Amino acid sequence: MSNFFRRLPNLAYPTLLKTKQSNTDITETKDLFRRVKIREDLYANMMHFDKFKIIGDQRPDQVADEIYGSHDLDWVVLISNNIIDMKNEWPMTQYDLNTYLNEKYTHQELTKIHHYETVEFRARNNQLIVPAGLEVDEDWNMEYLQSTQIKQTNNHNEGRPLKSVSFFEYETRINDEKRNINSLKPELLDRFISEFTEIMKYEKSSQYVNKKLKKTENIRIH
After folding, report:
1. C-alpha radius of gyration, the chain, whole number
2. The model's pTM
3. Which residues of 135-163 are buried (b: 16+ CB within 10 A; e: fewer)?
4. Which pLDDT tens digit goes with each residue over 155-170?
5. What are phi and psi of 121, to 5 degrees?
């Protein structure tokens, strides 16, 4: 991430250091509030992004090295997915997941049913009656028309299109869904970095010092 922080502009704050000589002394620090966000509609454009699946305990720097040949471009991977909170938005390692589950649940709670959901169900003519993955109640049922007969999905002779999902499966699934990310196409990398660098520059204002620095209000000299 050092590559990322070098591109952030600076803020000039009144210093709080004990070694200050006067109330006009300043300390320069990185402007962590300066951020960019990828428009959601761009993710559907395959001209800009590829789909990437995080394997095992891969970190952002390892993903960046695999895609772009440099672990220093981990920030590109994170920005490409609008990830700010690594703890909650990046998949946990297996160790961290196990620790999280053990702290949140007992062994007995992990095996309990979290919810029920449908499995794909088709009529004999291959017509889709019920899609997979719909969260439903345990006693859920629906009627459908087959030829001229009205049938029900809870017909035990045809199998019930329903399954239970345990708390363990539910939590594991949430973590695994975070593995599917977008990766900026390598051929767009130079343009992305160039545009990011330009966006990070300050425009002229009452706080403007230069393109890389702006000052904050110093209440000590009022």
Report:
1. 26
2. 0.77
3. eeeeebeeeeeeeeeeeebeeeeeeebbe
4. 544 567 889 999 999 9
5. -135, 130
